[in-house]
Every structure is written in C-alpha cells, then in structure tokens.
Sequence to fold (894 residues):
Amino acid sequence: MAEGRPRATSHPRVVVIGGGFGGLTAARGLSDAPVRVTLVDRSNHHLFQPLLYQVAMAGLSPADIAVPIRSVLNSHDNALVVLADVVGVDLEQRRVVLDDGESIDYDFLVIATGSKTNYFGHDDWGRHALGLKTLDDALEIRRRVLLAFEAAERERDDNARKRLLTFIVIGGGPTGVEIAGALSELSRFVLADDYRAVHADSTRVILLEGQDRLLPGAFHESLAKKAHVQLEELGVEVRVGTMVQSIDEQGVHLEDGETLESTTVLWTAGVRGRRLSEAIGVEVDRGGRIVVGPDLSLPGHPEVFAVGDAASVIDQKSGRPLPGIAPVAMQQARWVAKNIKRSLAKKDRAEFTYLDKGIMATVGRSRAVAQSGPFKMSGLLAWFAWLLIHIWYLVGFRNRFLVLFNWAWNYLMYRRGARLITGERQWERLHELSEQAERNYDGPNER
Amino acid sequence: MAEGRPRATSHPRVVVIGGGFGGLTAARGLSDAPVRVTLVDRSNHHLFQPLLYQVAMAGLSPADIAVPIRSVLNSHDNALVVLADVVGVDLEQRRVVLDDGESIDYDFLVIATGSKTNYFGHDDWGRHALGLKTLDDALEIRRRVLLAFEAAERERDDNARKRLLTFIVIGGGPTGVEIAGALSELSRFVLADDYRAVHADSTRVILLEGQDRLLPGAFHESLAKKAHVQLEELGVEVRVGTMVQSIDEQGVHLEDGETLESTTVLWTAGVRGRRLSEAIGVEVDRGGRIVVGPDLSLPGHPEVFAVGDAASVIDQKSGRPLPGIAPVAMQQARWVAKNIKRSLAKKDRAEFTYLDKGIMATVGRSRAVAQSGPFKMSGLLAWFAWLLIHIWYLVGFRNRFLVLFNWAWNYLMYRRGARLITGERQWERLHELSEQAERNYDGPNER
Fold:
C-alpha cells in the first residue's frame, strides 16, 4: 500500500474494516493510542443508517445523513483511510487482502463490516423486493416510488394504475414500521396533491409481518399494539401473521394463496453478515455473524475482533442476540479499542457487557414508540424523544442543523424537499414500469 | 394521453416542452389565461442551472438546486405535467410525439428544450471530457474528481499520481471560469487536508481557452483581465489562445504539439440546441437553435414558439446572438405567454425586446466579476452581488434558505458538505482510473 508520507513510527498497526458506527468508533477510540490505524471501506462516507429510510422517502438528501470518513478522521494523525473492497483475511499471515490484490498487514484487526439484506435463500426476490442498506439502495427506492406515481399519472387502465399505486413493505421490524408509515404519509399528504390522476385514497400501503405482532423481539407487546394502531391511523394496511410464498413482477404471493399485485415491493424482513465474514473461514452463526468470545475477539485469534452487525453476541441479561443497532456497535467498538490498549499495556482484557439504554421506532410524522428498561412511551412525546436523540447523534454540527431544519420544515409544511428522480434516461424505466403494470396475469401462480 | 380527471373545459391547449427557466416561466405566465397547459419534461425536476457547478464541486446537494416541476405548478389548476421524452413534432397535425408513440395535440406550442454540450463534431471526446448540463452530469463530475483523489492516495507511481491530480477545464466562458475556480479551491483548501499523499501544491487545475482572453463575448475586456488575475490568485493555470487538437484517455493534446496529461477533463467550451430542434425540420442556426421571428414564433407557424437556448435570436442593440442565460429565457417566455393571450383576445402580437440587466461570473470564494450596462464591478462586492442575486432567484423559500446556509458555512469553514461518492461498486471504477493513470504512453500522438 502506498501511504504517501511514510509513518515515522513502528507502532503496531490496527486495521479496521468498515466505516460504519462500529468501525468509526473503534478508529476514534484509538486516536490516543500508540498505534497506526488504517480504516478500509468500500464507500467514502459514513452513513447515519437510522435515517436512511428518510432518504428513500424523499425527506432528506444523501448529504444530510452522510459524511466523508476522511473528514471525520482527518484530525486523527494516526489514522489512514483507504477506499477499497476487502475480499479476504489471511488470519495466519495477519494480512487483509484487497480487491486489487494488494494487501495490508495488521497486528490487530477489527471487523466492522455490518450487514446486508437477507432474502433467506431467495436472492432472486431481490430483483423485485428492494432492500435498504446503502445510500444507493435508498436512491433506488426513491426513484422507484416516484416513478410509480409518474407512471400512474400517465396510465389509462384502472387495474394497472392500482398496481402502480400499491406499495408493499415486507417485514414488521423497526425499519418496516418506519418505512411503511413514511410511505403512507408521502403518498397521501405530499404526492397525491401533485398528481391529477392520483387521489389520497387510491394509494395503498401494505405492511406484511410473518409473526403475529409488529416489532417482534425486543419491543414490549403493548408498544407493538400502539405502533399497529398508529400505522392504521396513517392509512397503512397492517397484516401480521402473514407469510410470503414468493415475490415476482406481479407482486407478492402469500402462503394462503392470495396475490397482492404491486409494482413496488420493499424488503426489510432481515439482514445477515456480509460475505467477508464467511470468507474468512471462522465460525459464524445462522445469520452469517462471526461468533466471538466475551472480549469480542475470535476464539484462537485474540488479535482479531468483530463488532456490531458483523458479530454474534448473546446478551447475558436477556439471553437473546444483541440487536443490530448503532448503540450496540458503538459500545462494542469502544470496548475493543480499550482492550487493544490493555493488550499493548500488557494488561488483562475486560469482558464486554451491553448497557441497554432503550430502543425506539418512529411511525411517521409525530408518532413513535420507545422503551427504556421498564419505561415505555408512545405518541407525540416519543416522537420528540426519537427526533432529539437522532439529531443529537448525527455526526457533525452541520448535518445536525440541516436535518433539524428539514424535519421542522416537513413537519410544518407537509412538504418533501428531495423528490428528485435522478439517473440517466428515467423515461425508459417509466415505460418498463408501465408495461409491468399493464401485463395480464392469468392466475396468481403464473410467474 | 391519460389525464386523470378529464378537463371540463374546451379551452385551447398549450403544450410546453421543457421545464427549465423558459418552460416553467411560460407555464406560469399562462396560469390566468383561458387555456389548458401541458408541460412535458424528461426529468421530474426544474434545475437552477447557474449553481449546477456547485453540485459538481461537492458544495451543494442536488436537492438544494432542484425542485419537482409538479410542486412548482401544483397550485396552477390549468397545468398538467407529464414526464416523457418528446421525440418529434408534427407541425401540420399540431401534435407532439412522445417516446412511447403516444402524442399530445396542441393549439399552441412552446419549445423550451434548452441546450446540450457541444463537442463541435468530436462526440467521441465526450467519453473523456465531461460536460455539465444535468444533475447526473454534475454527480458524475463529483464522482470522478473525488475518485481521482482516492486513486492518488493509493498510487505509488509519481507520474501516475501527477496525472490523477491534474484537472483540465476546457472553455473560458463563465461556466469554465466558475468551475476552474471552485475546483482549485476544493483541491487546495478542502481535499488536500483530507488525504495523506496529496498536498495543496501537488494538485494542478488548468483552464484552456481558444480565444485570446477569458469570458469572450459579452463581458468587457477589463473584467476578463480581472477574472484572469483572480483565477491565478486561486492557483489556476490559465492558458488563453490555446487550441485543443484532441482529447483521449491520456489527456488533452494541444495544437502546438504539447500534451497535458490528466485523467479528469471537463468540457465547458460550448452548447448547442437539442436534437429535437433539428428533428422538427425547421430552420436552425449553426448552433442548432431554432430561427424565430420578432414575436418569437416560427416563420409560417404563428402557433409555435421557441424560447431560451432553443431559440436563435439576434439582439437588436448589440447585433450579437442573445446569451444562453436564464434572464433571456425567462423574459422570452413571459413574452410568449403574453403573445398567446393576445392571440386569444384577437389582438396583434408584440415584438420581443431584451432588457439586459447585466451579466456576472463568480471566481471561487469571495471573488467575482459583474457588469450591468456601463457599470462594472469585481472582487468581494461583485461576489456578494452575485450571491444575493442567485439566492434571490432560486425557486422556493426552502431552497433559498438552505443554499444561503450552505454557502455561509462553506465560506466560513472551508468545508464541503456533499463530498459523497455514490453509485454502485465505485471501487471498481477506482481501479480503472488507476490503470488509466499508470499506463505508459510512448509518445504524445499515441492514442
């Protein structure tokens, strides 16, 4: 690797893979340590993932929720940032292999590669059911939703228009709840006003969840019910206990034989560890997350750590896997930085424990659910708490301010600022969409 | 065309092609007229083109300078917006033909299709020399510039790094001057700080102009000299009287035999009317602009008008063609709206005269040149005038406010908020760029 100015030191080298909440926190946590840090990421920006759905729903611009990793770390003299795709790790040689064949040696390695959309073995569904993990995913969803409205405006066939204006969100976790609520608001209060052939009550947003309640897992059942009611107030059709049989260009085929016809299907039903975690050849759990010990290092490799969505860690209190949220990744990354420093000082490592400050999900404008320990909130108060906490954690003052302003504006004016369809020759995609909507399906099982 | 709610009226139908400054102003100018307006555009947004270079230079986000055409026109009950590509006009049948074979009849037609980058017969140069006319152009330039820095950071070969850090802007008109100044500032004050292997004095920005002065045409020569000096103060190498022989992946080959090696070449040397203008089969000038009469209508077709960059109009005062700037398009569009109303009222039409309020160009942070009639300005005062006027004309309060805030922030902090590399698999493009930079060229004439 070319490093420009050669480092004068021979300090141990820490390689961090990934510039998300985990990776960035690990790099920052080592800024005062006698180490050289190299952070490798495939994209040049750190993403504030909890607000990514707002980019997909045209409420925020990409730059509102993303900062260049370099600018976050440029005051850290011991940190180097490399834009590259890591294709493998040689655990014996202690070396990270990049896509162009080059490699970077390490003394310590932090794997913070995050997660990707999990179609549970049905990767072909990905063509029809869009996942939401990256800025490009969000821009593609924004494009598809806006193009569906454009196509509906030009459509003469009533059935085809119905298919274009039916939006299906699969997965009733926090992301699914947030995106279904935002999508319903966008359709009813913003877009319906802009199109002559679209009325608020002609758009349909359907949220499908396989389990018998929303927000399964960590959220209390009373809050799940509240979220259910809040979504219905926003006009979302919520269907729990509904299993998906298959997804194709006609729409979603349910296990009970029903077909929900739609040209826009979004998938938030699951994530799994990235390919790299499996490529390394260590033990991973069912979700492709790397199994780590109590100090978050790999069994047999105390110099290698995994954090955040890349790591499989069981919560000692609840007995359940820790949720894939930013606070978990950040607490683990701080812990890893601390343990690396302890190793350098020849001290014993400490075991990681997760301090659960709570979880929350927003349901559109002015509605949310939140819980922290025994304390539960819902409605407007929870929404304000959600808003403040998310703005607070956004990296950098500028983003915080802009996001606050955008939110306030949207809230007051029912407007969306970033309703742009970008990408070359979108009118051609419009036709493809119209053709898809106009096609005749003889039966629900025809693909 | 499906129009949703059928219009109850049988008012004459005005079709406007294009949602830029001309088209949008024409549609707005007809809001109180007894007509049905249909505005057709290939993209869903109106673009504030004068600040487009700021998106390319990572200073502003796309949504800061673009608004959905629908939201601009949604309070106009007589206006319909269609996202489509117009492929032809049947002047005899009075019908506009869309890409999908559908057509729209008109009683009046306003052609406001704007212009596209003109490579003067060398369309193959477009692969290496990027033009700047659309949001996608701007995002591609932003991507290429940021990737060049990323590739330079990883590059070991000094010559290859030099090629990656050499940026060539071809064309010394207002856009070329603005982009060269902004690019030099971005390189020296923002990016150089973020990369270890890049220093302020290792980046080169070269501005090439074929004529013997900058800002040829409407600007006074004394202002051209001021802009020249201001650019040099910012570190731009300005070369006037320099003709380009060819452009390829090695860089730019000049007529005098010199080769300027560079992986990033930007082209602002000219624009021409869009293909549609030529496809209609009416008289166009050398630049592909439609020749119109004194009332801006087509000779022999009083029901068809052309405005802005799509129209070829000679200024009666200067004897030169009117410049391709927003005030010209907007004044012409207002005139056309007025003349359509006069025709409906069976009144005689009025001849268009252009009221020249002045022209200006900005040269990076806190420098600009401006002239209005005999009055000339340069430096900080001109920059403030430029800033105020551009913010004032931005469509909609929200954009105005955001742009002001972004500008102030950049000005104070030497920071750029939108330094995002988006688009799939950018690390692969990084390699292509590195390979291009590392290739050995035996002689300047080898392609």
Observations:
- Residues 174-194 of chain A form the longest helix (21 residues).
